[in-house]
Amino acid sequence: MNTTQLGRECRSYARYLIGEAPSAYVIEKYLDFHQQSDLSSTLTHDRFDWFLARISARGPFRARMADTYASRFRKHSLVRGKLALTLALLECAPPSFEIVDRAPGGGLAGAVLRLGWQALRYALVLAVSAALFTPVRITMALSAER
Amino acid sequence: MDPIVVVGSGASGVHFALSVLRKGRRVIMLDVGYTGPEAVRPGDTLNGLKQNLPDPVDYFLGARYESLALPGREGEYYAFPPAKAHVLRARNEFGLQADGFAPLYSFGAGGLAEVWTGGCYPFNDTDLSAFPFGYAELAPYYAAVAERIGIAGTADDLAAVFPVHDGLLEPLELDEHSAVLLRAYARHRQYLNERLGCVMGRARVAALSRDMRGRKACSYTGRCLWGCPTQAFYTPSVTLAECRAYPEFQYLSGLFVDHFRVDSAGRVRSVVATSAGGQTQEIAAGSLVLAAGTLGSSRIFLESMYRDTGKMLELGGLMDNRQILMPFVNLRMLGRRWDPNRYQYHQVAIAVRSADAGAHIHALLTTLKTALIHPVVQAFPFDLGTGVSVLRDIHGALGMVNINFPDRRREENRVSLDAGSTPHRLVIRYRPESGEPERLAHAIATFRKILFKLGCIAPSASVHVRPMGAGVHYAGTLPMTDASAPLTCTRYGASRDVENLYFADGTTFPDLPAKNLTFTLMANAARIAEAVF
Predict the structure, then answer these.
(1) pLDDT of the residue at B1
(2) H-helix or E-strand containing B308?
(3) Digit-coded pLDDT (tens) for B260-319
């Protein structure tokens, strides 16, 4: 992947993870990591994994879809590795570390409501992503067998 | 008898050395002695470092991103800090082959206790029942070591299991979550004591709650894991620096000790070591004290015996504490803000009576304050975006119980050398005691009940049984015994196979209680130094 594609990927992941664009420093480190390391050497990376990674780079919603699917069915996939890298960079660097750590208000009631909403949203996105990606995965697996 | 040659600068080696230096003896310490970087910006908090360092990713994840936790390391919730990478840096001469055991070893100055979490829990008479001495003999040395290193703690319910020795400092400031846990314990104390055999109290930790002998009190920067910037948190390198102030102390670093030579009278004559460049050096020894850790000392002993007698010996009885990590959520802390500027390691300890008469399972409760969260979020059963949002709400409610189990010497758990390799690799074979899965399952169920009573939930899917060796409390290959036999030591760590050879580390422990053994390693090393030299 070239630096433009990697930069786009990093921006998509940061907006998905913390709702804000990454700093220039985080993007620089994201590129630096990919120059030094090959994630596909340590994580699963068949055609479907590359597909999930490509989809996830196209914006925060698609990143959520791909990651939600992977969280259930593809825990060690490339997209999870790239997202873990992005989160690690965001939590180490200013100003994003403050956003990662920001404690929401609202006390116990607020927390319970938010946790309920997050669980519901996760279940919904998981259902949609499974409906969309499972046929793709099966098709790819079948074509690889032929 | 001079010089006394000490191999290794870990918890045992430095306390042995300091004790004999105070008696006016001459000491040569041989050590590989890798060191790490100087502490950066000692006045900054952890978040201050993120804000102020020119390249914070380099500091927190490493120049080669070696501390990045990628998917596939389930069950481990901490990323190892790059500033401590030197502690586990390998040395080419030391090869290892392990079966059923996943050992860690250190060639860093200060040894493995450079990355400990500071728990100081003296053994009581029950813990020492297989030792050739009891608590009364160790007590003055616990107090002496406490005076050297500074231990914060107090006498509370845990005093029934952890003897209260002299020299304790007042406890550290408690973080809010730990305080909530202790209040819950106070409310349910009777039930927990009587029904679950559980006592709970303040952890005893090697950290200063007030200034002591040139070291500053804990400044609560939340940087413990990355290396205390002010030495308020004790590691053996503090005592190593103290030893180096003595003119009678010679510290030879960069040397990997391969073996010792024995003269015709069966006495250690010299120690043979290699430098990083491969040059061999021979250092004359009046007495030799091995304190290279159980695995390191065993390897040196086996190699030396092979060279002296031509026999490949095997040492039985290797032990380690099995550990279980049990993450939990404290429902009373949900939605509460947390203060990142706190002491980072455990502040609460638990002892639970086990099936063995008088024995206990020992656990440390660490509440989550500052940490890199990307390994934690990956453990959640969600996508990472949801995980980050969830963590914001439950960060202040998260904690981890680290449960430690006792081990006992069994001859089938052996350490030997691989005769077919050059240099000889250390070969370790370990098998857990029969019935262990049932015991672990029972302990897990008990701890989940305890946590539930304290208002916490511990999801069973998150419980992680760590592999043997991960406890890094190795012991037992050349045990102290009253009865004389080959491949044993006297009550003062003197080898019964070579006349002027001593073991000052865990090699000689004939039993391994569930408590962290490091404090006892230090006290026992000081005891041997006082009694023999």
Answers:
(1) 57
(2) helix B293-309
(3) 999 999 999 999 999 988 999 999 999 999 999 999 999 999 999 999 999 999 999 999
The pTM of the full predicted model, rounded to 2 decimals, is 0.94
A67–B383 C-beta distance less than 8 A: yes
Strand stretches in B346-466, DSSP E: 348-353, 360-367, 398-404, 407-408, 414-418, 425-429, 456-457, 464-465
Q: Is any Cβ of chain B less than 8 angstroms from the Cβ of A52?
A: no
C-alpha to C-alpha distances, B35 to A97, B31, B254, B297, B473, nearest whole angstrom: 29, 11, 10, 21, 22
Of the candidates B176, B112, B121, B165, the one whose C-alpha atom is nearest the C-alpha of residue B364 is: B121
With beta carbons less than 8 A apart as the criterion, state whether B405 and B462 touch: no
Question: Is the Cβ–Cβ distance between B285 and B293 less than 8 Å?
Answer: no
Tens-place pLDDT, residues B420-442: 998 999 999 999 999 999 999 99
| Number of continuous H segments (helices) and E segments (strands) in chain B | 12, 23
Two structure tokens written together for B298: 């065993």
- Given an 8 Å threshold on Cβ–Cβ distance, is A103 in contact with B390? no
ipTM for the predicted complex:
0.96
Q: Residue B357: its pLDDT value, please?
A: 63
- Residues B157/B141, Cβ–Cβ less than 8 Å: no
Which residues 49-78 of B are in CB contact (within 8 Å) with A?
50-51, 56-57, 59-61, 64-65, 68-72
